[in-house]
Amino acid sequence: MSEQDDTSTGGGSVFDRVKRPAGGGPAGGSGGAGAPEGPEVLGTPPAPTDSTQLEEHTSWRHAGVAHRPPRAEDVDRRAERRAERLIALWFTVSVIGTLGFIVANFAGDKHKAYYTPCLGLGIALAVGGLGVGMILWAKRLMPHEQAVQERHSFKSTDVETAVLEEEVALGFDAMGLGRFKLVRRSLLGAGAVLGGLAVVPLLNLTNAKPGKKLDHTHWVKGARMVTGEGRFVKLGDISIGGIETVFPAVPVKDAGGTTRFEPQLDLHTKADSATILVRLEPGINKPRPGRENWDLAGLVAYSKICSHAGCPVSLYEQQTHHLLCPCHQSVFDVPDGCRAIFGPASRSLPQLALGVDGDGYLIARDGDYTEPIGPAFWERS
Amino acid sequence: MTTTHGPAGSPAAAPKLEKRPSPVRKLNRAADERFHTQRALRENLNKVFPDHWSFMIGEIALYSFIILILTGIYLTLFFDPSNTEVIYNGSYVPLKGVEMSRAYASTLDISFDIRAGLVFRQIHHWAALLFVASIMVHLFRVFFTGAYRKPREINWLIGVGLLVMGIFEGFAGYSLPDDLLSGTGLRIASSIAQSIPVAGTWASFLLFDGEWPGMNFLPRLYVAHILLIPGLLLALVGAHLGILWYQKHTDFPGPGKTEDNVIGHRVFPVFAVKSGGFFMMVFAMLALLGGLAQINPIWVFGPYDPSKVSSASQPDFYIGFLDGSTRLMPPWEFRGLGHTVAAVFWPTVILPGILFTLLALWPWLEAKFTGDRESHNLLQRPREAPTRTAIGAMSISFYLVLLISGGNDVIAKTFSISLNAMTWAGRVGLIIVPPIAYKATKVICIALNKRDHDIAHHGIETGIIRQLPTGEFVEDHRPKPDPVPDYPLVPTHRFELPAPGHGNGDGHAKGGITTRARKAVTGFFTEEKTESGEEPVGGPRH
Q: What is the ipTM metric for this complex?
């Protein structure tokens, strides 16, 4: 191979570290004088712009290694000092960041808007300064090398494997699990029964068996409808097109014989008894058979708990009379018995029969929902 | 500096033992006398890690895990995982006097009244997102380069376990504050548990201590979040790194690289400093995010109320694909024989079950289909395995359709598209996009391979056009050059050790005045003398 490169080489970086192959021969000749063995060159060869083609770079190629030009830090003492100072500067930034964090933490007003950003910035400078400094240190001042380490196959020799297998087999022989069937079987039995030690504490995790709990809510016959703010609802409170979320206020007989209505606004009642009242325009409600008198002058009551995954169905579109669950976009058609018409829900929302008590307040006329509310479960029929 | 550049293949003679050891060396020798550390230390300090940017993605996951532990410890000191209702009386005025759980109130306190509470809470949340995200990207890197092939299938399996555990851990974490958003998520989780055939109702009651919203389940969620799952994660991370360390890292093919070697930086000094610096950079990035970018502002959502929900409520991104699958699922609820299997069961239990099982078994599936039972240490470029790459692209596109559908209400609102149209687009897209991605990826890979093949066999175009004597024009090609390493290859064991068998006495026997003084009083500490009376039994030196 000739060391000198002709001018027609160069161009893309792929060529950086290659010489013309010996077999190929120089294609054009540097002078363009027309090599006798080759045909004439047409077109313009790319200009040799790559510095790695220069003599001082190519001459370093030896032992299969193409050196990069040395870093400035390797040959220039002043460049090395500059790198050192730069790294020290970043480590100083880290110190400033830490100090800034400490000052901001103690002297800053934690209720002011600047507090958290300052702390974040302080930590970022504290660790980031160290990080940048360390990486510069490794890249600029530590020697570049390509360390080589051998890998070895993980497979053991056949002899090693055979010896171990034999020894373990002898060990099992000595244990005699093959011979003493009674030991083996009773041990397996004991192991299986021992699983009870793990299962029983797990069962203790619940305070109550599921039983029929999912079938019922807190609605009882005659329970008044009360809003989340504790206000009892009358028919006139909800204008046409309006909605209201209500919870049960259960009747409690006082000692004197008067009836009090106790609003149930705890999480457990809210989770299963939340009911949505929708006032439809007169005449558009198409009640299901047997539910013709469950509404009250266009006012209908449905469970607010989505029959899909239990989110509260809380978006009502007045024009289309659709209820939308914001969790998974199930859509329920209110005039059609809250039938699920789109999305992943497949069951209608359960309906609650509405009534009015003697004082004009809305009540659950027949008591609880006639079917389990909310998402399905295995025992649901 | 120059000593490290010993010529390749000719290790220098072993250095002599330092006669007057510095304190550090003394410590080292003391440890060695007790644990025989020198050989193992040398092996591990000289461990070589190859250099490639894509190998740092897994490091990001590791570092965010460390940051999660650090910031998490701080948060545990102030967080009170209790469902007990209290009236809030902290410094966040809009919620003053509101009834809420102590979990939510203490999270408000962390955010407004604890010094550096909010910044660490936000770093913790950002780090959780980064943890899962970097695991996923790391998984893509490992998948597309074939790094999981024998002998590394077990580490792939552990990695899949880490991903699943990371998702559970993240969900448990953002569910703890008991705000409206997390409560809604937990409500859906309880519905999912409830949907499992036969055992579902019991499972839900066991998890939440009774019918939703349960009696007092936040403490057990807390135990899962700060003890059980992190313990499992820590063990899996340890196993993952241990196996990686033991089996040595894979590397891309390159000059000097073979199936039987690793080329790169030794752990000490360069790799350790670079990695330490990288950890600091990851930490700094998360600190910037935690300080400047608000995340999960629970005070905006308000306390959990089962009858309320905010519209456009979105889980953290790693749950998004389950949200999407749930939204796209047709209303298929099966009823009969007195039992019901809920529609929510298929997209949230069966689908992820299948997906993660396939993911976990992939190395064995591929080995089965390709018949490749060999061990591999060199990685493949994605194009070199078109079918695998196409399957990967197909899976990612499937995942992306689900993820996008998880936010389809936000997209529909932002771009004024019908929500129903978005849902249908997702349903159709889930079926037709993955095959298209498969086909397109495969075609691209094969075309890229063909180009590589052409270059390898016909060389690279030179731009030189020649006219043959027959009048035909041809373009010159030059052969593709062999790659050449940038730096000399240096063996890691630069110093040759003498053959084993004879130790070199280090001359501790004769000594100065302290040694003689010690010898004089040794008898005081030992109860018996040997028969000859020269050396005490159990003396310091034999």
A: 0.86
